[in-house]
Design a protein that fits this description.
single chain; Diaminopimelate Epimerase, Chain A, domain 1; 2 domains; eight-stranded mixed beta barrel; 9 helices; 36% strand
Length: 345
């Protein structure tokens, strides 16, 4: 007999996920990893037997519940990142796109009744606070809204220090070659590497995708960094034990009016979009001396950073103190509830 539980499929920015109440997930009696795999149908690359979209960006699960301490946080949430075709669920870190959709879901699910524009949320995986705001509080109950998410003191959100390897740039070794990277945990741990260092065969034009051999190379840089961070013991373990932490971004000189061009991998797969958490990480690191993004842009101090990916431009903001402490980062996303119903798992 299959279990049934109420779900919503929600788009946040350029990601999509299955949203459920955490209490319903626990009541299903399934291990959370197994529950997520069944909901998404992630064991099959096409997600035919579930609600996933066949890509890491459209195959996520978000658990939401009323905040344990309503005076500090109205909502608690956690995000499961999945890679279709595998049995891996990574609950570490976050998804910036779907974070914006949490209050929209919560209002529709009856978890909150908003009388103002700001919702205070806590990411249970990182313990950090996120404020979500919309131009009109009535939009929370409309099923569709434009949302600004502001991350409060986002440095060290997951691994407890903003620069986990101790410097603004470090060296990792891949197949005997030393490669310079910036490793920053700002909303989520990211490896940032320049296109000049990462690419051997890919066109530097943002309109072109990564050459297959460069995809492998970029993933190897990520895996080597996971070892350097102490998350896994070997590169061969990284894709299975820590597939979403850290994530990796390749950056180059901006074109088309952008400050930076950005290529991204998610769960080992090239994606057209720029992860929102990655955009905020880049907005912050471009204002911190000695990082790879700061060396690629002209003029370090800028409130808003424009980032060009293969699917278009993303804008992110960062408030960085003179000593390099990141006070806040923020981004705007549109969100919409696509489906509400009962999933049989």
């Amino acid at each position: 007999m299959r279990a049934s539980l109420p779900v919503m499929v929600v788009r946040g920015g350029t990601s999509r996920g299955v949203f459920i109440r955490k209490e319903d997930a626990i009541a299903s009696g399934l291990d959370l990893d197994e529950l997520a795999l069944r909901l998404v149908g992630a064991r099959d690359m096409s997600c035919t037997d579930g609600l996933g979209g066949g890509q890491p960006t459209t195959s996520k699960v978000v658990l939401v519940n009323i905040g344990e301490d309503r005076s500090d946080h109205e909502l608690d949430f956690s995000v499961g990142n999945l890679s279709p075709g595998t049995h891996v669920v990574d609950w570490q870190g976050t998804c910036g796109n779907l974070t914006a959709a949490v209050p929209l879901y919560a209002a529709a699910a009856g978890l909150i009744t908003k009388q103002n524009q700001i919702v205070r949320m806590r990411n249970l995986s990182t313990g950090r606070t996120v404020h979500a705001s919309t131009p009109n509080s009535s939009l929370w109950g409309s099923g569709e809204a434009s949302v600004r998410t502001s991350y409060i003191e986002p440095g060290g959100a997951t691994v407890k220090t903003t620069f986990p390897l101790g410097a603004h740039q470090n060296t990792v070794c891949v197949d005997g070659e030393e490669i310079q990277v910036t490793v920053a945990d700002i909303t989520h741990p990211y490896v940032i590497v320049s296109a000049k260092s990462a690419f051997r065969h890919s066109d530097s034009s943002i309109s072109a995708g990564m050459h297959e051999s460069d995809v492998t190379r970029v993933q190897e840089i990520r895996d080597a960094t996971a070892v350097a961070m102490g998350l896994v013991e070997s590169r061969s373990e990284a894709a299975l034990r820590s597939p979403a932490m850290p994530r990796i971004l390749v950056v180059g000189n901006g074109s088309g009016g952008a400050d930076l061009n950005v290529w991204a991998l998610s769960m080992g797969v090239p994606i057209l979009t720029i992860p929102v958490s990655g955009a905020m990480c880049l907005a912050a690191t471009r204002s911190i001396a000695g990082t790879i993004p700061s060396q690629l842009v002209a003029g370090m101090s800028k409130a808003e950073t424009s980032l060009l990916g293969r699917s278009g431009m993303v804008y992110a903001r960062a408030d960085v103190d003179p000593d390099g402490t990141v006070a806040t980062v923020s981004v705007d996303r549109t969100c919409r509830i696509i489906l509400e119903g009962v999933a049989r798992i």
